[in-house]
Amino acid sequence: MTTATDPLPPAATPLPRPPAVLRRMLSLHDFEDAARRRLPRPIFGYIAGAAEDNASLRDNREVFGEYAFTTRVLRDVSQRSQAVELFGERYGSPFGIAPMGINALSTYRGDLVLARAAQRAGIVSVMSGTSLIPMEDVARASPGTWFQAYLPGDQARIDALIDRVERAGFRTLVVTVDIPISANRESNIRTGFSTPLRPGLRLAWDGLVRPRWVAGTFLRTLLHHGMPHFENSFATRGAPIVSSSVLRDFSARDHLSWNHLEAIRRRWKGPLVVKGLLSVDDALQARNLGADGVVLSNHGGRQLDGAVSAMRVLEAVVAAVGPAFPVLIDGGFRRGSDVLKAIALGARMVLVGRPFNYAAAVAGEAGVQHAIGLLRDEVDRNLAMLGATACTDLGPGHIVRRHG
């Protein structure tokens, strides 16, 4: 838990002067190489890696090249706003921070860092169920954060987890449904990452060659908070990251069904979002069971290698569920132009994952703030050049699909 010794400032406190390294960060792409130099090889490999041959990971980026813009001119775009409304809330930009596990190994108190940066910028932040900081700490520090849950293996533990999320004060619940079993992430093995983490000479060496991370993240965490645990997988505290019981805690999900989601809908009174869908039929099923929105996602290419990019099914899903039902999307977004292509095709909001994790690793909360600002400025410039003053001005007429 956050203690009096925790030096992180509250969200309302001005941040110190940004580190000089941020002057070299001109786009979200730039953070990846910088994070590679700062993080131990296993930690960076976990964040950057995907499943098997990385086919879905590559497709998540390549798909954006298949769409081009048509622009409108002489439209008086001097008064622009990129704000969007979702579930009764107004957000400053049409993008937010996607849920990512073990952020607290990327930077000190990583989940708090991301949530506070998002709160300062007025954008969505989604806390991951595989996080290492108690959800109550994040909800208290950054009200308005969403919580993303991986479902435990039985209804009693599901109910207890949902009740804990409600008591913590979260208003929006995101349920991820695309992990019936663990994926084949060979990249984790190649880079030395494992769950649980296994202390050894290789891990020790990977830490020694990144002394800034060891001192500023790992040892600092041990000193103030003890060994990191998976805090939010269940109603009670989960296993430490070095425990062999971690494997057991994240198994036994292959029997889960729509009946479990229906039970969650009866229990959870706030907005309910279902994440990890790639088909029209599943989006319709989620809507019909009472979900308030869906996130189209192939899990960043980290589950089924060869799963289609969410951008390729976006138009069809939006057409099927109707414009009143919010469709969110993630997977490979790096530029403001990527974001606006999805918005033009009907997405209500885009969630961005790895780049914000890299930004946190590079410069903590200041790094995340800088990354948000870069993407926000790209969205603003592109809106103007498209001849639009708001995200609601965009539609399929602004997009041309490339052929050949």
Please give a structural write-up.
The protein has 404 residues and is of the alpha/beta class. It is built from 15 helices and twelve strands. The strands form three sheets. Strands 4-11-10-9-8-7-6-5 form an eight-stranded parallel sheet. Strands 1-12 form a two-stranded antiparallel sheet. A hairpin with a 2-residue loop joins strand 2 and strand 3. Helix 1 runs antiparallel to helix 15 and helix 12 crosses helix 13. The protein starts with 27 loop residues before the first helix and ends with a strand.
Summarize the SSE layout with pairings.
Layout: H1 28-38, H2 41-48, H3 55-62, E1 67-69, E2 84-86, E3 89-91, E4 95-97, H4 110-121, E5 126-127, H5 135-141, E6 146-150, H6 155-168, E7 173-176, H7 186-191, H8 201-208, H9 211-225, H10 245-249, H11 258-267, E8 272-277, H12 280-288, E9 293-296, H13 311-321, E10 327-330, H14 336-344, E11 349-352, H15 354-386, E12 399-401
Parallel strand pairs: 4-11, 5-6, 6-7, 7-8, 8-9, 9-10, 10-11
Antiparallel strand pairs: 1-12, 2-3
Helix pairs in contact: 1-15, 4-15, 6-11, 12-13, 14-15
